[in-house]
Amino acid sequence: MPTAAASAREILVRLHDVMASRTPAQAKLNQVVGIIGEETDSEVCSVYLLREGVLELFATRGLAQEAVHVTKLALGEGLVGTIAERGEVLNLDEAASHPDFRYMPETGEERFHSFAGVPIIRRERVVGVLAVQHAEQRRYADVEIEALLTVAMVLSELIANAGLIDTGAVTDRPQSTAAVRIPGQKLVEGMASGAAVFHQPRIVVEHTVAEDTDAERHRVYAAFDKMREQIDRIAREAEFGVGGEHIEVIETYKMFAYDEGWARRINEAIDSGLTAEAAIERVQQRTRQRMRQIDDPLLADRMHDLEDLANRLLRIVSGQMGTAAQLGLRQDTILIARNLGPAELLEYDRRRLKGVILEEGSLTAHVTIVARAMGVPVLGRVRDVRRLIAEGDQLLLDVAEANVFVRPSAAMEEAFDAKLVLRQKRKAAFAALRDVPPETKDGHRVTLMINAGLRDDVGALDITGADGIGLFRTEFQFLVSATLPQRERQQRLYREVLETAGDRPVVFRTIDIGGDKALPYLKLEGGTEENPAMGWRALRLSLERDGLMKVQARALLEAGAGRTLNVMFPMVSEAWEFDEAKALFEAQRDWLSSRGKRAPNEVRYGAMLEVPALAEQLDLLLPAVDFLSIGTNDLTQFLFAADRANPKLAERYDWLSSSILRFLRRVAAAAREQGVPVAVCGEMGGRPLEALALIGIGIDRLSITPAAVGPVKAMIRSLDRAAVTAALDTLLEKPPRDMRGALEGWAAANGIELA
Ligand code: PEP
Ligand code: MG
């Protein structure tokens, strides 16, 4: 028996000549069915192509010629329609006994018993079916099916180049073209419409038949080497959580990257005469078909990883390595990615990036925080995107409803637009609150500040009317930069921020690098960390490698010359760490004054409380600090032992849990007793109901994402502080299991405005 490669190669050699000839497309197809029929020794060989949603018999050897362009089948109709609809192979010794068999008298096919058909796939979408038939009852051998699949790959190129199918059908489009709604998890609120763009564009295989098989083999060897190198490097660098990829994923990647079976199948496909790209795609198509028949969610996840890797291999082999950011966005875009690092997101053109869809993602991952700061809505945990969305598809993103509409119908668009108008009205109403103070009904003034991290964010101060910047994440500058920002560059940014803020305070947080904030250009020793969020990050790193922090201290002190400078340290775990960090700044300050250089009039030092242990050292810490800021993003992940970036845990614990509220109430009370101002600067404070609870436990300083200022201010102005304090006292005395439900009930009963 010939090998699959050998039988396919003979066909491909002959097809190559047909493809290269100058005959019209229909004549080429006629020749093709002749060649395949002869080479596979089949009595019938037919090609059906999808036109306007219908499968049309385009060429046949063996069936009645009168049936050509006459016989038509809907998707799902008959054996051919079934293959096209499911993208599956059928191999039957008695076609008529298959439940989907449909007899078509005009073809004269009643003589033929056996039937084998494979889908013709272009850019992951079925565009036609290639079928062979025999009079005798026989099952086709695996090698024959494999050969048919290889031929179908080549046919897809011929068909697309000849324009035999609708151009719409050959765009990068998945199986269905109908409108669909895909659910996800709300990460950053908002609505947006735009075209789907994949962060890592899918490669379209343009040439399928190889000119030089040896050369193709070498190309694929080299690509495998490079891909393995990349995966090994990612695994090594996982200490900084490159791209948010998790260890488990990387392990699976490694397993696939080194899988000999995969490499061998690709090589066999090359031996059959395909180009390296076509061989990779061909093997992937077959794997997809096989996996589709196995209904196992775990395997589906693995398939996802393999798809990613196959695409990586294709990108390497074709030399098309850029992300969509590097290629540039050409229109309003909704970006789709498995996951993104904050730096990757920041590479996109902010004017055109309207929304993001992540297959993973979690509420407090830094990419989410960056997107929130950019005002870009994000929907996370969206499943099956590659199958349901194609590059260029029109998308409507409605995060409030936790939905994305793909290829929306006119009715969907209308409903979306109507909602958008309402939303804009609400936004305008919030904007009208810009100059009114965030004051409760019983006259208590809350301090509402914003979180920022980039130069452009500072403009939000004027737009929102916020009281200042309660958290300036200085590491963002490091994340967006291709190289380590030098002191002058840092200083320039800090000065610009201070100038824009005028007399409103800005709290600069020293760099919090590590965890999910990786710096590609900064390689730090320490080996691979299994838990980077609990690892060598933020102040821990800054105190040990103090060169970075000294430079930053100088830049901040110089930028703050003649003003009050507020500095805050992240991830303080014990009081002495704060003391050391402050001493480092003070030493720089002394150095400046010893040189007669201008320094700030006053430097106020604060600590972030985001490691629970610090709460047990408040007696040591509070006398030393000028202010305290609670980072609830990290604090809750440590209190609950639940990774803030792990999508599986994203909805498990609630910020309104009594553990968190009691913890925060205790810290706030201790700080108040010592006269130390305490703020909350985590994402929690930007949600109106959570902000209500925070005010109820005695916190009256919030630093939140700019978009939340309006809604939170509206909530505050509808709130009676004495009443909410009493309500929380009662609720925390004997906490209900559903604290969120209880607070929602209280808010509704008390006429609280919750956006
Ligand atoms: C936090 O942890 O709550 C916080 C504000 O800091 P970041 O999100 O940058 O870690
Ligand atoms: Mg933090």
UniProtKB/TrEMBL annotation:
Q: Which GO terms describe its molecular function?
A: phosphoenolpyruvate-protein phosphotransferase activity
Which residue numbers delimit the GAF domain? 24-169
Highest taxon in the source lineage: Bacteria
The cellular location(s) given in this protein's UniProt record come to: Cytoplasm
Keyword Kinase in the entry? The reply is yes
Q: Which major enzyme category is it?
A: transferase
Q: Which cofactor does it need?
A: Mg(2+)
Q: What is its EC number?
A: 2.7.3.9
Keywords, A to Z, come to: Cytoplasm, Kinase, Magnesium, Metal-binding, Phosphotransferase system, Sugar transport, Transferase, Transport
Q: What family does this chain come from, according to its entry?
A: Belongs to the PEP-utilizing enzyme family.
Record NCBIfam families = PTS_I_fam (TIGR01417)
Output this protein's name: phosphoenolpyruvate--protein phosphotransferase
